Amino acid sequence: MAHFVAHYGLGVVVALVFLEAAGGLVVPGETVFIVASALAADGHGDIVHIVVATAASAIAGAVAAYVFGRTRSLTSTRPWFERSEAFFRAHGATALLLGRFVPVLRTTLGWMAGLSGIRTARFLVWTIAGCVVWSTAVGAAAYYVGEEVVRQASVGAGVVFAVVVAFVGIHLLRRRVQRA
């Protein structure tokens, strides 16, 4: 991952963070942002540019998702729509500010806010604040921890890969035993 980010640079970070915030795809936006920030500590990029570009792409992605959600709210009558609307009435500002730190929630905030009909000005204020706080906190943490983050991310990816391979192997073995 570190080689990929170092080779392709800030464009990859911006694109993946945008896609993650837009909620259309499950992509490793935060992961590449962390790697890019850690690499900046090693002299590969400017942390200020990385943080600002990441915040801007997260805001743009959230706004795109919000607009999509707003257009869908006019035709939505599903029960989850009513729950989403009630949730944002009660916790909208907090969700938009702190939800950036929760991976699954981060990918749904924009369109959920749009579906719920939260006012555009309120959405923008809290989304911008949330994206700036998130990108600054995560970028600074990764930058100051530096290479350790990259090394741990590589180890973590290896462990996840090994667990997935083991799970698939066990599943296939069980199927073979059951057929016999």
Please describe the biggest sheet, giving its number of strands, its sense, and whether it closes into a barrel: none
Overall mean pLDDT stands at 80
Q: Structurally, how many domains make up the residues? A: 1
| Spatial gap, N to C terminus | 42 Å
Return the structural class: mainly alpha
Tell me the Rg in angstroms.
Answer: 19 Å
- Helical content class: over 70%
Number of helical segments?
Answer: 8
Question: What would the principal axes of the Cα set say about the shape?
Answer: flat
List low-confidence stretches.
none
How many β-strands, per DSSP?
0
Describe the 3D structure.
With about 180 residues, the chain is mainly α. The protein has one domain (about 1-145). It is built from eight helices and no strands. It has helices at about 1-10, 10-20, 30-40, 45-75, 80-100, 105-115, 120-145, 145-180. Helix 2 (about 10-20) packs parallel to helix 4 (about 45-75). The chain is flat and about 60 Å long. About 35% of the residues are buried. The mean pLDDT is about 80.
Summarize the SSE layout with pairings.
Layout lengths: L1 H7 L1 H13 L6 H13 L5 H27 L5 H20 L4 H14 L3 H26 L1 H33 L1
Helix pairs in contact: 2-3, 2-4, 3-4, 3-7, 3-8, 4-6, 4-7, 5-6, 5-7
List keywords for this structure.
single chain; 180 residues; mainly alpha; 8 helices; 85% helix
Would you kindly provide a brief summary of this structure?
The chain is mainly alpha-helical.
